[in-house]
């Protein structure tokens, strides 16, 4: 070896170090965030931060089942007030006398973004594939009422139900997939799940898993080309990081917890608090001597201070919940509100023979009024609710031990232990109440976690889902809510608002009433195809 | 040398089989449920019948040994299976991601070797000096710091406080194409953190090796003959002092892989290591099997590479005795 070659490593290192140093310097000059400041916000571009990422983009596997999927359209869609309106259908369906046949006329001249026409075949394909047990769709139960779908020509589709199911039309917001693409591959793992093709206002440009979804406007959209040409959804699970990136100009809008959203007031940003059906609730399992006791249930229902929870935990962005239906919904039964009344609660327990012992905990027939309450570990909102509930119960003489666990830990204990759960679906009262309260669904997956068993409620639930008459349905759900006052198998705590902050250059926006799931469909961008940004 | 390579490759087969089986067994015994992971939020409203059907479709109702055997024999026929958590074929997951991981790891590794060597040499020249003490304490500090903590610290400081560098991802939020400029800025933090976690080993080893070499007779003789410090350092001390680094390069591969797992997760880097973490928490057996094999193969190759290099660099060392 000569000395020349010996010298090379050190020289090389020097060169590399210099290059690296240069790169750092130049990089720091062209920092991101500077990107938006230097050229000004692009009018036709929107970047929003969300906390949730879909598992798949295939409607056949459950994506977009509640509408607003952006890439696809359903037969029907929801407007701002959650009323149904036609999308790929030309009108709302004709429903037969017995409530078991739904006929849709389809819009003509609609094409998928690959240029192929949309026909009745695609609708039949989509529904049949979802009903197929070999399709790994975890939401198949939602189409339980559906027996079969048939096409009559290219532009008519007929759905036949197993039993009359009043809210069935609500289910037809689910997105339609192209039979000529999705039908040619494995439904569970084909390309279509990550590279979807639909009829919707946007096309997927790219999906970087765990990072973001990028969309571009579909210029040939049947509803007119969207003004926002480029739309990005950045997936940022951490609230603080999301808020920071919103402040740095990296994002135009984001979902934020109320306390972080407050900091954005009057900075060229607009804050939207979307009303929701998203409740937080404590399950009181029927199978436990304490939580299954009607007097304990009723006492807890009165002892809990819901207003305090809304003020302290939710920062005012929410409202007290007395049942699955929020107080401002037309389905809500007026008069079922319960005031916070610790004395009345204590009176119920005194009368029933639950006497306070030396340790301040009540007991009856040798049974102490004590039970564990589980919440999903890592979920701060549920933790806060659980702790507040336990401290309210303590004042009453009921001892609640709050514990955190994953669903794997919680599930085997659901029949005995209380759980801080969440849920809520705004489109129809049947959607969340049936699975929450129907006695035959006790212990079925995560349905009816409290094993609630009330024959009057069971009867009303069946009536509510089968009757095609609105007044009859309203009466049925009034019965359910009144029964929940007499025997609250769950303590409903709050309905939480979903808070969003968006750059005000997009003008005034709207929000829909939102479900428990924070899907891609929620937020002021539910109708981004209709936004008219100030240029 | 060829014989050693052949022997090692034969030896790799039982190792790979054992490691994949062990990973399957651990994943199977973990509290995570593949069906719940697959169903996500929809699983919370699904009927039990629906969930049972999913369990059968995903094939996770089969006994562990059967599943493992199916995966191994499938892989041999070129079918890597389907990833449940990614909803796409395992081969696609790997093809899409491995390039980003290799880029990140190679860059971090090169930076760690070069910077570590440079610091080690600087420290060795004046042992006990202020510079030496600074380098040594920096190395020990970095060695003790957990890498995910370093990563979060870097995000907090460079991205959140100073706003110099992006906090994660491959490209800017608003862009859908990967450009060289964006890639560079997004690479600096994750590669820098990964390099910093690997650097102490090289710095300390080089310092030791070069320092010892500087005390050896030939070096002392060279200095006595009045040769320049530079010639002494580069011609004599470095050659014998860098030998340990060669062996170290190969044997650092396992550390590099575990480092990448955490760094990719912290920085949302769309690489194969991040996918491995997701596969593990979702108990996605097919993807887990593939990533395990890849990682094990990388470790075995790294060790082989280290021994070969050492054998080539130092004729006194034989190949496997």
TrEMBL record, chain A:
Signal peptide: 1-27
Keywords, sorted A to Z: Signal, Transport
Stretches assigned to coiled coil: none
UniProt GO cellular component terms: ATP-binding cassette (ABC) transporter complex; periplasmic space
Molecular function GO labels: peptide transmembrane transporter activity
Solute-binding protein family domain residues: 84-439
GO biological process: peptide transport
UniProt cross-references to SUPFAM superfamilies, sorted A to Z: Periplasmic binding protein-like II (SSF53850)
A Pfam family matched in the record: SBP_bac_5
Top-level taxonomic group: Bacteria
Protein family (similarity comment): Belongs to the bacterial solute-binding protein 5 family.
Protein name (database record): Solute-binding protein family 5 domain-containing protein
Naturally occurring in which organism (per UniProt): Streptomyces gougerotii
């Amino acid at each position: 070896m000569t000395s020349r070659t010996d010298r090379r490593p050190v020289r090389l290192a020097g060169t590399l170090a210099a290059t690296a140093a240069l790169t750092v310097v130049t990089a720091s000059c062209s920092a991101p965030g500077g990107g938006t400041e230097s050229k000004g916000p692009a009018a036709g571009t929107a970047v929003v931060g969300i906390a949730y990422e879909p598992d798949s983009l295939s409607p056949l596997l459950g994506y977009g089942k509640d509408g607003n999927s952006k890439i696809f359209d359903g037969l029907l869609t929801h407007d701002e007030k959650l009323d149904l309106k036609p999308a790929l259908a030309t009108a709302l369906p004709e429903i037969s006398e017995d409530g078991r046949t739904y006929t849709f006329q389809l819009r003509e001249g609609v094409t998928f973004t690959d240029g192929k026409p949309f026909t009745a075949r695609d609708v039949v394909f989509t529904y049949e594939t979802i009903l197929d047990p070999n399709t790994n769709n975890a939401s198949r139960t939602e189409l339980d009422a559906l027996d079969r779908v048939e096409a009559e020509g290219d532009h008519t589709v007929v759905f036949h139900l197993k039993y009359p199911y009043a809210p069935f039309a609500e289910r037809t917001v689910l997105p339609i997939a192209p039979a000529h693409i999705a039908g040619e591959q494995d439904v569970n793992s084909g390309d279509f799940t990550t590279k979807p093709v639909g009829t919707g206002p946007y096309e997927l440009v790219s999906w970087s898993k765990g990072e973001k979804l990028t969309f571009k406007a579909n210029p040939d959209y049947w509803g007119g080309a969207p003004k926002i040409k480029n739309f990005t959804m950045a997936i940022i699970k951490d609230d603080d990081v999301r808020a920071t990136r919103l402040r740095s100009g990296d994002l135009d809008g984001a979902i934020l917890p109320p306390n972080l959203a407050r900091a954005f007031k009057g900075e060229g940003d607009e804050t939207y608090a979307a009303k929701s059906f998203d409740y937080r609730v404590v399950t009181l399992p029927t199978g436990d001597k304490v939580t299954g006791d009607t007097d304990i249930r009723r006492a807890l229902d009165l002892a809990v201070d819901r207003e305090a929870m809304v003020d302290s935990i939710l920062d005012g962005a929410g409202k007290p919940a007395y049942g699955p239906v929020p107080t401002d919904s037309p389905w809500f039964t007026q008069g079922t509100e319960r005031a916070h009344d610790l004395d009345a609660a204590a009176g119920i327990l005194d009368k029933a023979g639950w006497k306070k012992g030396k340790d301040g905990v009540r007991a009856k027939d040798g049974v102490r009024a004590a039970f564990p309450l589980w919440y999903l570990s890592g979920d701060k909102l549920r933790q806060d609710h659980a702790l507040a509930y336990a401290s309210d119960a303590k004042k009453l003489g009921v001892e609640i031990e709050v514990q955190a666990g994953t669903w794997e830990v919680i599930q085997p204990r659901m029949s005995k232990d209380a759980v801080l759960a969440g849920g809520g679906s705004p489109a129809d009262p049947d959607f969340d109440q049936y699975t929450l309260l129907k006695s035959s669904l006790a212990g079925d997956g995560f349905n009816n976690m409290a094993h609630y068993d009330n024959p009057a409620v069971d009867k009303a639930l069946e009536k509510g889902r089968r009757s095609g008459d609105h007044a009859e349905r309203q009466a049925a759900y009034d019965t359910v809510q009144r029964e929940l006052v007499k025997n609250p198998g769950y303590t409903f705590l709050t309905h939480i608002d979903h808070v969003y902050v968006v750059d005000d250059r997009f003008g005034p926006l709207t929000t829909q009433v939102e479900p428990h799931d924070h899907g891609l469909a929620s937020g002021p961008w539910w109708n981004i195809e209709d936004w008219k940004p100030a240029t | 040398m060829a014989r050693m390579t052949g022997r090692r490759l034969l030896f790799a087969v039982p190792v790979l089989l054992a490691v994949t089986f062990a990973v399957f067994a651990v994943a199977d015994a973990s509290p995570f449920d593949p069906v719940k992971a697959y169903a996500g939020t929809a699983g919370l409203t699904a009927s039990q019948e629906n969930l049972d059907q999913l369990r059968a479709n995903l094939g996770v109702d089969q006994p562990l040994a059967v599943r493992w055997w199916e995966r191994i024999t499938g892989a041999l026929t070129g079918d890597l299976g389907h990833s449940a958590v990614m909803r796409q074929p395992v081969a696609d997951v790997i093809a899409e991601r491995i390039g980003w991981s290799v880029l990140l790891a190679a860059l971090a590794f090169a930076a760690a070797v070069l910077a570590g060597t440079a610091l080690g040499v600087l420290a060795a020249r004046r042992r006990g000096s202020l510079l030496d003490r600074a380098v040594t304490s920096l190395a020990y500090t970095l060695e003790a710091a957990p890498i995910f903590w370093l990563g979060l610290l870097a995000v907090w400081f460079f991205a959140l406080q100073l706003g110099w560098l992006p906090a994660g991802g491959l490209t800017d939020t608003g862009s859908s194409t990967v450009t060289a400029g964006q890639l560079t800025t997004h690479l600096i933090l994750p590669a820098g953190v990964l390099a910093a976690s690997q650097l102490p080993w090289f710095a300390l080893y080089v310092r030791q090796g070069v320092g010892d070499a500087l005390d050896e007779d030939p070096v002392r003789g060279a200095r006595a003959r009045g040769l320049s410090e530079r010639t002494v350092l580069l011609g004599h001390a470095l050659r014998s002092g860098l030998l340990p680094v060669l062996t170290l390069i190969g044997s650092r591969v396992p550390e590099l892989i575990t480092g990448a797992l955490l760094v990719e997760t912290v920085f949302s880097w769309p690489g194969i290591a991040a996918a491995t973490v997701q596969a593990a928490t979702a108990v996605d057996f097919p993807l887990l099997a593939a990533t395990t094999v890849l990682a094990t193969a990388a470790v075995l190759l790294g060790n082989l590479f280290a021994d070969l290099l050492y054998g080539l660099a130092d004729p006194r060392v034989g190949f496997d005795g």
